[in-house]
Structures are given as C-alpha cells and as structure tokens.
Amino acid sequence: MNISKDLVAASAAPLVLAILSEGESYGYAIIKRVSELSGGELQWTDGMLYPLLHRLERNGHVVAKWGKSEVGRRRKYYRLTDKGLEQLASQRRQWQIVDSALRGIWRSAFIAAPQEI
Amino acid sequence: MAKNRNLEERIEEWRTFIRRRQAVHSVDVEELEDHLRSQVKALNEAGLDDDEAFLVAAKRLGDLDSLSREFAREYSERLWKQLVMSPGTVGSLSNTTREALVVIGLAIAACVAIRLPELFGLHMWGPDENPSFYARNLSLFALPFLAWYFAWKRGLGRVGGLWLALPFIAAALIVNIIPFKREGHTEVLAVLHLPIALWLAVGFAYAGGRWRDHGQRMNFVRFSGEWFIYYTLIALGGGVLIMFTMFIFQAIGFNAEWAVQSWVAPCGIVGAVIISGWLVEAKQSIIENMAPVLSRLFTPLFTILLLVFLVSMIWTGSGIKIEREVLIGFDLLLVLVLGLLLYSISARDRQAPPSMFDALQLLLVICALLVDVLALWAILARISEFGFSPNKVAALGENLILLVNLGWSAVLYARFLTKRASFAPLERWQTAYVPVYAIWAWIVVALFPIIFNYR
C-alpha cells in the first residue's frame, strides 16, 4: 500500500526520535528499523532522512558525532538529547490524540477497515 | 576483483556528481556515501551483484535534484556562498538587462533627489550654503531608493510597499520639522543615527517583508557587510576619478572644482549606495564573501592588541584617561569586535565542531568586555560629576546595548566551546538582537532632541 507523502513526512520526525530513544544509531540502521517496524510498508526515499537528522540536530533534539563503522569507515552516529526526549513525549501525545480521534470516528461510522477484519 | 573496482568507480562517479550540488557539503556526502555502501553490502548479501546493488541503492537514496533541494532547505546559507543560476534563469537575459535599467534609473533618481533642493534655494555650496540640511537628509537621498530596489526585486507588493514607505516619511518629517539649535549636539546625533535607523528599514525590504525570519535576518547581516566593502571600494575608485578630473582640467587651465563639488561628488555618494547594493545582490553568486575573510584575518590581530593593552594597563597601573572622545572610541571598539564576531558567525559552518578559532573569538570578546567595563567605570564617575549631556547619554546607551550583546554572546560561546550547547543559539541571539539597534537609533533621532531641548 502506498502511504501518502504528507503522512510520511509528518510521521518521519517522531519515528526517528523514537528509534533513537532505543539507543544511539546511524542513518542506514534507522532506515532499516523503520522498514522493520512498518513491515516494509513505510518506504522513505533514503536520502531524505539526512536533512531531517540535521534539522533535529540544529534544534538540539539529537547530537551527532563521527565514529567508525565495523569495517572502519567514518560513520556519523546520532544520539537523543533530553530536549529530544521531551519533544518525543510531546509528539507522542499529539499522535495519540489523532489516533484516538480516528479510532472513535471509525468505530461509530462503521467504516470497515479493508483486509484486516 | 575487477567487479569490485567497477563498484569503486561507480561510487567515485556518484560522489563527484553529488559534490557538484552546492547545498550538499563534503561531510554530508561522506555520510550519504556510508549509507550507500551499507545498502550495497546488504543487497550484495541478498544475492544482487555489484552493478545491480549499486543501481538499487543509488535509486533508493533518491534522485539528486530533490535530495539537494531538501538539503538546501535545511542549509539556505550554503547557497548564499555559491548560488548557481538554475538552468531556467540563465536564458532570460532580458531579466538582467531590465534589472540593470531599474538600478541605473534608481541611481539617477537619487542624484536628482540630492540636487533638487538646490532649486528651492537650499544651496549645497556658496555664500548662503546650508550644510546642516544636507547632513540631516543625506541618508534620505539614497536609502529610499535602495529600499525601493529591493522592494521591486523581492516583489514586496502594495501593502508591503506602504509599510516600507512609513519609516522614510517619518524620518523626513522628524529631521526637517524638529527645530534643532544651530550645530547643537542633538542635531549631530540625529545625523549620525538616522542612517542606522533607515538601514534597518532597507533590511525590511531586503527580507521581502519576512523580517521575522531568522535566516533572512542573517542574510541581511551578510549583505550589510558586503555592501560596506563594495561601497568602500567604489568610494576609493571615485576618489581616483575626482583626482584625475581636477588634474586634467587644471592642465588646460580650467578649474573643475565647481563641477566636482556640486555634481560628481554628491551624485557619486548617493548613486554608489544603490550600485553597491545591486552589485552585492548580483555578485553574491560569483565571488567568495569578503567580510568573513577580513574578520578571520583581523580577529587574531585585535585579540593580541587588546591582550597587550590589558596587560600594559595592569603592569603600569595607569587608568583610562577620560577625555570627551574616549567613550565614543570605546563604543567603536565594541562595534568592531561585534562586527568581527558577526561575520565569523555568518560564514561559519553550523555543524563544525569547536575549533581554535572559536576559542580565539571568545578570548577577543572577553578582552573587549574587560576593556569596556574599565572604560565604563571611569565614564560613570565622570557623568556623576558633570551630569548628563545628549552625547554622553547616547554613547552610554550604545555602550550598554553592545555590552549586553557581547556579554551574552560570550556566555553562549563558552557553552558552545564546552560542548554544552550547539552553535545555533549564538546565531539566533545575534539575529534576534538586530531590532534593538534600530529601536535605539530611532530613539536617538526622534526623542533625544525633545528630551534635551534641541541642544
């Protein structure tokens, strides 16, 4: 299924923050984790992750440092800051509100979710 | 092995290709390359050969155009350095021609504006000359036209244009209605502060009305530095032109002084304001900016100067002698240090870790603060002895404004150097502070004459 561009864009930052809350990580691993979490449904254009990470860094939500990969290549690792953790909590609340609102209306309007039932 | 080399070649090719995108820096390329290689490796393990793996990995990374656009959105200041004309705009030569015509028209309009009062009996030179009128209005002959140019360039629209006209009209009314006492201090202060007050109005036009935007403000700061350098260069060239004018006409027995004084010099002074603005706007794409280069060059020198000054003050135990000009001198020192700081910040790569130069910069700021506190101490003593005058209050106000800025900058810089914060807050602090200068300049222009009874 194709998830709309806007939805992908809106969910990108909370997803990245949540993944980083599991521990320090780097670009490729984050992408892999996203694909894992969504069962391959959520496909990003991989490159777009980096401007996003840099924005999060500028806003102080994550910090980056250069390290080494397992084969000795230079690799940039990102880590969540306290500010990023707060941001994640706030994002989470926002998504929960959206989610519960949608659930409510779907239940009462008897719109069948395709396939899943 | 041959296969492997093939992959390396392809990655190399991809790297040079992406490096050509101005918005993507080499460190970002390195990060993307790590991603690409990880992806290729994973696909290799899944059974694809190098060629296929590379193609798939590169495709999933995204097409370079939209990728670099995304980077550009995040790093708009990178484009300032090396703005390339996108293919769409190269062909439209008529656009640049039209812009040149508009600029020349505005420069001529400024020349007409400065010569026009002559018709109404306000002479620039001669027995009944009126130098104070020209001094008070000097910035009003040039800056409205520069603002006009940017309003036109940025497509500010009618509403924005009206807002923009407001400060200029207000300024024209203020400086011409207020009954200044002849050669009083408040008049001199208004003459000195009006250009600063109106320069920020130009900034409004420069930002295309989006003056709240942090990035736009930083761009205006960059513009101001470059503009100043261009103006100085044009002024030097103008000086040479005037010298030759005088010289060659003298050789055939004419005295060209009259023409130089009433036409060449005044028209040059106001016209160059607009021409410099246009040149910075047009050339920003072509050459490396000068202001950051100069600030890099002079930061160490000024640090040494201030350190030596502080040490010799302590060594000899001599205090600062308080003369009339001392306070203004120290104000200028702070302005200079602020300029060095500002233009280092404006060209700095936000992502770069703290370096030696940053430490030096902090040292410079701290030295300047120490020197200034010493001077301020001496001056406050003098004020409490002799009372307030407009000059002293203006200089003191400026000193405090700069002191607050540099003091907080030093704190932010120290936090950055000790890795407790990123570089962004320092940048933001500087751009957030810009309106303070404008407000103070307007206070000096508009309220000081009234407060100090037009002295």
Can you give a write-up of this model?
- The complex is a heterodimer of chains A (117) and B (455).
- Chain A has 117 residues and is α+β, with helices and mostly antiparallel strands.
- Helix content of chain A is 56%, strand content 14%.
- Chain A has helices at residues 5-21, 27-37, 49-58, 82-109; strands at 25-26, 62-68, 74-80.
- A three-stranded antiparallel beta sheet of chain A has the order 1-3-2.
- The model of chain B is unreliable at 80-92 (pLDDT under 50).
- By secondary structure, chain B is mainly alpha-helical.
- Chain B contains 17 helices and no strands.
- Chain B folds into three domains: 2-84; 95-180 and 189-282, no CATH class; 286-451, no CATH class.
- The longest helix of chain B has 38 residues, at 214-251.
Distance between the termini of chain B: 87 Å
Query: Which stretches of chain B are poorly predicted, pLDDT < 50 over at least 5 residues?
Result: 80-92
Number of helices of chain B: 17
Largest sheet of chain B: none
Principal-axis shape of chain A equals globular
Descriptive keywords:
heterodimer, A: about 120 residues, alpha+beta, B: about 450 residues, mainly alpha, 3 domains, about 80% helix, globular
